[in-house]
Amino acid sequence: MGPHPAVAAIRLAVRRALHDVLSEQAVVSEKAGDTRSPGEPPLVLVACSGGADSMALASALAFEAPRLGLRAGGVTVDHGLQSGSADRAQEVADRMISLRLHPVESIAITIGRTNTGPEAAARTARYAALDDMADRCGAKAVLLGHTRDDQAETVLLGLARGSGTRSLSGMAEVTGPADRYRRPFLAIDRQTTRKACLAQSLPVWDDPHNDDPAYTRSRVRHEALPMLEKALGKGVIEALARTARLSRDDADALDSWALQAERSVRTDQPGTDGWDGVELDTARLYALPSAVRRRVLRRAAVAAGAPAGSLFARHLEEVDRLITAWRGQRAINLPGRVEAARQGGRLVIRHGSQTPPTPTC
Fold first, then answer.
1. Which residues contact 168 (CB under 8 A, 6 or more apart)?
2. Dihedral of the CA atoms 312, 317, 323, 324 (nearest 10)?
3. How many Å separate Cα 34 from the centre of its chain?
4. What is the model's pTM?
5. InterPro entries per the record (predicted)?
6. Element (H, E) at 9
């Protein structure tokens, strides 16, 4: 008799996510801090919070890794936001050890105050901790337990921000340096992971922050999505996740087009004479489709020093008017003390501390 259908589904998802991780003997990296020995199989880590999604992921990796010729380890992050969090993190680490994962670490992080909000700050600190362990252990990949439900929530949040196609594309299956982060469960719903845990008698810890209405994602999960399903019927979560896949394909294609277009409209010489700004030909910009043109403008603003996370659609719309609705407007101020100004047939985007170089004939 085979495994429970939910268990079979999560194992298959993990197996597919690791199809490109070589099972041949690993070559010892020359990178400092790599702890692998010659002949050791590649290491894959699972990030586990103790919830149903990540516990199901940890169990599936523990089962599949030996069959793929891989080693499996785990990491849990203590955010320090709740009383007893250190003890709870150690419990999660012990559960991974009981699954025969090795190495396993519990990492405590400090979340500082930022203008991006507590959720974004926690995410940044968490990924920094995961990167640190992956680098130290020489891990080939880190598995994350985001599900189709998480993807739907991400798309809905992006829709509310009105940030465009890229925001609607949600989370990618593979991200990070050298394709480090893998999300095997983006096509699997949250109910399946919980069933898999029940079928395997895996203990699960439900983070109370996931039910706290103080957090935006929690309100989307417990209020917005149920309301949409009530009004529109079942299938909203699946439809939002499908929207993410389609939007990502479109966004990738447009980004590729914008990269090529940027080469044809840029008139400055990057990196010369200490000049880190960007100059673009306004006539050639005007000829581009708006979706491509705004991507070029975003790339230029980031290259000039604007923080990508603080650059919103409204900023790009104002800069775009310097191209499409030129009436002698003043320079546009962008995040990071970057400004965009039209100078004759050029659009100059630079940091406020810089002086544009003198044009040459």
1. 155, 158, 159, 243, 244, 247
2. 160
3. 25
4. 0.82
5. Rossmann-like_a/b/a_fold, TilS/TtcA_N, tRNA_Ile_lys_synt, tRNA_Ile_lys_synt_N, tRNA_Ile_lys_synt_subst-bd
6. helix 5-17
In tens, the pLDDT along 168-190 reads 899 999 999 999 999 999 999 99
Could you tell me the fold of the domain covering 5-242? Rossmann fold (3.40.50)
Is 218 one of the annotated binding-site residues? no
What pLDDT, on a 0 to 100 scale, did the predictor assign at position 29? 42
50 labelled ligand-binding: yes
Q: Is 53 marked within a binding site? A: yes
Helix axes 225-232, 236-265, angle to 10 degrees: 110
Spatial distance between the Cα atoms of 258 and 48, rounded to a whole number of angstroms: 37
Q: Is 277 annotated in some ligand binding site?
A: no
51 annotated ligand-binding residue: yes
Helix (H, G, I), strand (E, B) or coil at 142: strand
In this structure, what token pair is assigned to residue 150? 């998480």
φ, ψ dihedrals at 234, nearest 5°: -65, 155
What pLDDT shows up at residue 37? 56
Q: Are strands 278-281 and 346-351 parallel, antiparallel or unpaired?
A: antiparallel
Q: Which CATH architecture has domain 266-351?
A: 2-Layer Sandwich (3.30)
Q: Where are the domains of the chain?
A: 5-242, 266-351
Q: What contacts 74, CB < 8 A, 6 or more positions away?
A: 45, 46, 47, 48, 58, 93, 96, 99, 101, 103, 104, 105
- The rounded distance, in Å, linking the Cα atoms of 201 and 278 is 58
